[in-house]
């Protein structure tokens, strides 16, 4: 046992003993202060913990209330109930923890402070008192004269007695000090160990509790992932339904069919008609209630040969006429109110008011039909549905069906049919349901989430089952695929000893592999300079497109007799295949397409009579009617073309020795040769998608793709951030070149991607003026439609609120986009 103060030193009462006593007393004072502070902090912690327990209990009760409110959803109710029970159990564990803290810290240490430390303080007071008495006795004993025997004896006795008392009290004091130093260790460690064991039990119980809950949580996690996918699908379906309803409403507003929105017909439930009507009171005064609280507006319906109404949905229907066979219906023109009609039965009559004349006629007709139906034995008559798409201006456009965008299983089946696409491109998970559209690969749901984290500038993820797929995008996916892309991005994987991840691998490993594959491009094979040169020269020799038209526009032939060919004016080629018709537009389609803009054009003319805005729809139609198709023009004579143009169109490009055969040049010539694998390889090697070839009139890969004539090649470049408006040295962008070459599908694609049709080249020509000069009726029509659509948006936006357009404007915009998509699809089918 380690002794803090030596017992023998206390008998000597040496300075060392006094110094030791002072040190111990200072230490005991600090110990008391620290323990008091710890006990107060423990009390504060316990009070805060109990407040937390009360708040947590209220929170658990809230979860239980939510579970009771969700009785219709079994999954939510059972899950919330189980979670509430687990959280309540954890709350009980918290209660036990704070009770143990109160017993081990507060009670035990507080007892140690109050009993042991206070006891030693009292002993210290006695020790100080007897020490002082001893000092007095010593002083008095030293001052007694030698000759006074009686006083000497008395002082000696007092000193002896005081010393005995001092030794006794000093020994007790030292004993208590030594015992306190030993006990302080055990008390402090005992209380803290008890507190930490309480924490151990708390967390162990919590771990056991949530270990039992873990299978349920894992199962709910799987269900939650599926719910997210289902919610996204339901959201898309609802958005499509919302769009279709909005489109129908816009058409009804456009053709003054607003009455169809004011009532419903539900033949499956036996409801012939239902909707709101004002009802005249049946009292003696026969008045219309004018109070806002009860304006006698009721929800009427004709069902089961009865006329009933109700004020609120939960109210029981009130029967106005029990049997319509005994009734008649008539208009009430003598009433003080408009649009009134009356249903008369043998016992009573009921006058009602509709919101418009068309609604009144619809209700009268519905009552008459119900009366006639009630007399028939079978009571079955086909319900004549109102034709909401009877406009002649929309007939030819709608007859073509939808925009032919692929969705769901169609896109999934076509993409997965490509070899290698049946598994995920990165981890090999079978049956992938996602794709990266700019890379052209299929992905599982795990890898698709990682690709999303790479950013859309690296990978654009789209669902094969939930999203709509445009034909050009679908064809791009079918042209590439996992096999082609993995041969490029994993060319050196085995050589570098890198293992391809498996579906069961941790997400961190799969993410690291994907980043190394697509961001760092560690596995891409870098060809030698000679191999790169050979490939670039080989691709440049595949440039079979005549480029004379890109530099010099063909001379316009003498205007022939205006004649617009019909869709049936086709000829059979020597190969036995039916040739393409002269124009994408037949006369009916052209007339229908322009007539669709007539309403807005006339509206624009009325609104802008003072501002000088002109109506261009009719003028465009007349111009196109007198413009022959580009395919009907006679071929220009060979001598009419520039010799320089012929030389450039026939001879392959010549590369100087100083030419750097970089990945940019590979992408440049691969775009012209329409070689998507070589383009993807160039992109993997780091090619700039908008690289400018200074040796070839500042042309870009996208302009080269236009020269190549492939719409899918242009789509690939646009999906990878190709600039649709970047111009060459003559100020001509991709839209200019597509117009010059007469590539109608590419013109549609660039207009769809927002190309500026007002851009002017160095000769002061826009794409529209070039198309008019080249007499290409198809492209003129498309550019005119785009221009008119843009003008209509700007005009209607100027007269309305900014950013808001009328239903007709929205419908026109949708119809224009639909028209553009149809032409892109047609071009893909023909290619």
Automatic annotation (TrEMBL):
Q: Which GO terms describe its cellular component?
A: endosome membrane; plasma membrane
Q: Biased composition, Low complexity: where in the chain?
A: 391-403, 626-635
Domain (PH): residue spans on this chain:
270-372
Give the protein name, as stated in the record.
Arf-GAP with coiled-coil, ANK repeat and PH domain-containing protein
Q: How does it sit in the membrane?
A: Peripheral membrane protein
Q: Which gene encodes it?
A: acap2a
MF terms (GO), sorted A to Z: GTPase activator activity; zinc ion binding
Note the InterPro entries from the entry: ACAP1/2/3-like (IPR045258), Ankyrin_rpt (IPR002110), ArfGAP_dom (IPR001164), BAR_dom (IPR004148), PH_domain (IPR001849)
Regarding activators and inhibitors, the annotation says: GAP activity stimulated by phosphatidylinositol 4,5-bisphosphate (PIP2) and phosphatidic acid.
Source organism per UniProt: Clupea harengus (Atlantic herring)
Q: Which UniProt keywords apply?
A: ANK repeat, Cell membrane, Endosome, GTPase activation, Membrane, Metal-binding, Repeat, Zinc, Zinc-finger
Q: What does this protein do?
A: GTPase-activating protein for the ADP ribosylation factor family.
């Amino acid at each position: 046992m380690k002794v803090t103060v030596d017992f023998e030193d206390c008998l000597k009462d040496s300075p060392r003993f006094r110094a030791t006593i002072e040190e111990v007393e200072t230490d005991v004072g600090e110990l008391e202060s620290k323990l008091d502070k710890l006990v107060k902090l423990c009390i504060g912690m316990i009070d805060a913990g109990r407040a937390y327990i009360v708040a947590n209990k209220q929170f658990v009760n809230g979860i239980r209330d939510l579970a009771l409110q969700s009785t219709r959803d079994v999954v939510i109710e059972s899950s919330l109930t189980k979670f509430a029970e687990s959280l309540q159990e954890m709350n009980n564990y918290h209660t036990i923890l704070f009770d143990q803290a109160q017993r081990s810290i507060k009670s035990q240490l507080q007892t140690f402070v109050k009993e042991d430390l206070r006891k030693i303080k009292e002993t210290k007071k006695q020790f100080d008192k007897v020490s002082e008495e001893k000092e007095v006795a010593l002083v008095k004993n030293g001052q007694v004269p030698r000759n006074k025997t009686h006083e000497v004896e008395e002082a000696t006795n007092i000193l002896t007695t005081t010393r005995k008392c001092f030794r006794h009290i000093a020994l007790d004091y030292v004993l208590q000090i030594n015992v306190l130093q030993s006990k302080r260790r055990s008390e402090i460690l005992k209380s803290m160990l008890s507190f930490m064991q309480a924490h151990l039990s708390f967390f162990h119980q919590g771990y056991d509790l949530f270990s039992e809950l873990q299978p349920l949580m894992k199962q709910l996690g799987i269900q939650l992932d599926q719910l997210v996918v289902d919610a996204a699908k339901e959201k898309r379906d609802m958005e499509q339904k919302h769009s279709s309803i909005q489109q129908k409403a816009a058409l009804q507003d456009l053709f003054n069919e607003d009455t169809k929105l004011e009532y419903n017909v539900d033949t499956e439930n036996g409801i012939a008609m239902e909707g709101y009507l004002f009802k005249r009171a049946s009292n003696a005064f026969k008045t219309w209630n004018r109070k806002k609280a009860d304006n006698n507006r009721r929800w009427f319906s004709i069902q089961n040969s009865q006329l009933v109404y109700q004020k609120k949905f939960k109210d029981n229907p009130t029967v106005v006429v029990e049997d319509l066979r005994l009734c008649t219906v008539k208009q009430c023109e003598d009433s003080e109110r408009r649009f009134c009609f009356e249903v008369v039965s043998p016992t009573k009559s009921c006058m009602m008011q509709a919101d418009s004349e068309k609604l009144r006629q619809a209700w009268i007709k519905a009552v008459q039909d119900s009366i006639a139906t009630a007399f028939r034995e079978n009571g079955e008559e086909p319900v004549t549905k109102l034709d909401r798409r009877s406009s002649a201006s929309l007939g030819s456009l709608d007859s073509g069906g939808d925009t032919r965008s692929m969705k769901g299983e169609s896109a999934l089946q076509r993409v997965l049919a490509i070899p290698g696409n049946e598994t995920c491109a990165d981890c090999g998970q079978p049956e992938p349901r996602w794709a990266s559209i700019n890379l052209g690969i299929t992905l599982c749901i795990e890898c698709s989430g990682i690709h999303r984290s790479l950013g859309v500038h690296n990978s654009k993820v789209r669902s094969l089952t939930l999203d709509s797929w445009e034909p050009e995008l679908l064809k791009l996916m079918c042209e590439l695929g996992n096999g082609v892309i993995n041969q490029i991005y994993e060319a050196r994987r085995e050589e570098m000893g890198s293992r391809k991840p498996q579906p069961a691998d941790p997400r961190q490993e799969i993410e690291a592999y994907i980043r190394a594959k697509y961001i760092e491009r560690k596995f891409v094979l870098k060809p030698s300079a000679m191999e790169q040169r050979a490939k670039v020269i080989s691709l440049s020799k595949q440039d079979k497109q005549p480029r004379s038209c890109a530099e010099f526009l063909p001379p316009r032939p003498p205007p022939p007799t205006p004649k617009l060919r019909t869709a049936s004016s086709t000829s059979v080629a020597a190969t036995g295949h039916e040739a393409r018709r002269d124009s994408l537009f037949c006369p009916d389609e052209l007339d229908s397409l322009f007539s669709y803009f007539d309403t807005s054009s006339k509206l624009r003319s009325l609104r802008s009579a003072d501002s000088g805005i002109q109506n261009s729809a009719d003028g465009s139609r007349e111009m196109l009617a007198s413009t022959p198709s580009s395919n009907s023009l006679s071929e220009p004579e060979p001598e009419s073309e520039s010799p320089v143009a012929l030389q450039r169109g026939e001879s392959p490009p010549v590369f100087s020795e100083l030419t750097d055969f970089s990945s940019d040049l590979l992408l440049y010539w691969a775009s012209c040769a329409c070689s998507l694998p070589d383009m993807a390889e160039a992109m993997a090697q780091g090619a700039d998608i908008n690289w400018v070839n200074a040796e070839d009139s500042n042309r870009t890969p996208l302009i080269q793709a236009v020269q190549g004539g492939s719409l899918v090649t242009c789509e690939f470049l646009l999906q990878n951030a190709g600039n649709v408006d970047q111009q060459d040295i003559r100020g001509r962008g991709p839209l200019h070149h597509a117009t010059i070459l007469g590539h109608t599908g590419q013109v549609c694609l660039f207009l769809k991607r927002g190309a500026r049709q007002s851009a002017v080249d160095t000769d002061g020509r826009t794409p529209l003026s070039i198309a008019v000069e080249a007499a290409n009726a198809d492209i003129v029509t498309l550019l005119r439609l785009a221009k008119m659509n843009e003008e209509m948006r700007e005009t209607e936006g100027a007269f309305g609120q900014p950013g808001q357009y009328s239903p007709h404007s929205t419908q026109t915009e949708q119809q224009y986009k639909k028209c553009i998509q149809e032409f892109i699809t047609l071009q893909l089918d023909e290619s």
